Amino acid sequence: MLPAQQVEELITMVSGLDKDSLLQQFREYPASFPLDFTPDFLDHQPLERLRHLFVAVCMQSRKVPIGFGDILPTDD
Fold this sequence. Notes:
0% strand
């Protein structure tokens, strides 16, 4: 489980992303498991749902999103 402070920082950073930036993060994110969201599915999701999904992906894989700084431990 992630410490509460790291979760808060992740949520704050993701909440500042617009839809285009968030879609780019989904395309480039180095998840440790397959992300099988189709581009069509992601394009048709509301911004808040995309944010929720991306935070869940980050928390599950425990990897730092591109350009977010060093807020989560990585498995590298």
